[in-house]
Amino acid sequence: MRKKYIALTFLTLFLFGCERSVESTKENLNYPETISQETSIQNESASQSQTFDASPNIDETLDSLTFGITSKEIAQIIYNKEVESYSKNIASYNIDVFPNGDYLLFCVTLKEDQFPSLIYTYDQAKPGRDKSATALIKTFINNFPIESDVKQVSYNLGDSTNQMISCLYIKNSKVVNFPLTIKIVPETDYFLTIDTEEYKAACKEGRYNDILQDAQSYIDNTSPASYDNAYTLVSVLTPIVEYWDNIKVDYDSIEKVATFSYKGINKIDSNTHFFPYATTNEKQIHSLIGFYDSDWSFFESIIISSNKNIDISASYNKFEKVADNGQIYEAYDTSLEDDVLEELLSSPAHTIRFVAKDGTLKDYEMSSEEYEALVVISKFQNVRNILSDLLFCFQNRLI
Question: Are residues 26 and 40 in the same domain?
């Protein structure tokens, strides 16, 4: 029979192993669905131990404190396929890591046990969002009848990656003391072989073709494991190759930033009223929205027709001038929030309405070329965001 689990005061860690106050582990806390690093699994363990130590109502068998199946079997259930993995030994724990696309799945086992007691995952592509990672855990729950006393919860590491981790673990198992903030990386990876400063420079300058060629050459020459980041880079960059000839890249060597625009749609003119562009130092797409006309409008807002009309209040970043030909030029530079971009991409047909203070309206139809420019620029900006995050997440990978 397994001895009763008696909770001890644990050393807890800040990011990268810095010590936190030991007293915080003694608090009996109520836990919401999403909690910060300051209320981590160690706190949950302490709270649960105070609840169950007096008369623990658990089946004291090995399987009651583990999931009863191997890490590879857990990964098979979650991913619905076999995934290559690598393992690390940390103190009294064994951690099996299963990378699959944007996701990282971790199975944590006490070295004295045969099966894991804790699994958790996060989505590298979407820091700050745990919806997709939680869905992976739910896939495991839905496909495996877990009879043990388990808890599912999300944790925010609280660091600059804003990473959400979705966990499922056996309550009262010793493995819940596992520190989430230990770095873990494989022994070999594309990012371990390259000049990272050159990679960063290529990202800033928009030299995506160079990054793609280097990653593909690495794959051809080394045949790395399927979880290597080189495959991710190739899968991310290959879809935009067909658009490269239609992209204009302007690099500012002083500001160290490149701007992407669509050839033919790179300024406001008599036929263009919506000019989307992206830069390598911002996550969001920008758009210059404006017109040339014979009369002033002094518009204060812009409405773009969609399923849900998009309202843009024109404040700063508004441009007004008289052109050389005597026409009036008015335009507004705005960043496109994710929900606005999604709405704009949902349909190729939009009316752009400029609304003046006196109620005067000017309407223009978004052309198919302007819409195509938005589609292509959004693809490049998505690539920019992934390239920016991949190396950072690799160098600062936390579990």
Answer: yes
Nearest to 244 by CA among 210, 273, 217: 210
Q: Is 46 helix (H, G, I), strand (E, B) or coil?
A: helix
- 238 Cβ contact partners less than 8 Å away, ≥ 6 residues apart: 212
Residues 177 and 86 in one domain: yes
Strands 34-36 and 150-156: parallel
- Are residues 198 and 155 part of one domain? no
> Which residues touch 153 (CB under 8 Å, ≥6 apart)?
31, 33, 35, 44, 166, 167
| Same-domain pairing of 160 and 215 | no
pTM of the model: 0.73
Q: Domain limits at 224?
A: 189-392
Q: What is the pLDDT of residues 111-132, one digit of tens each?
A: 989 999 999 988 877 766 777 8
Last residue of a domain, one of 156, 184, 212: 184
**Mean pLDDT across the chain:** 81
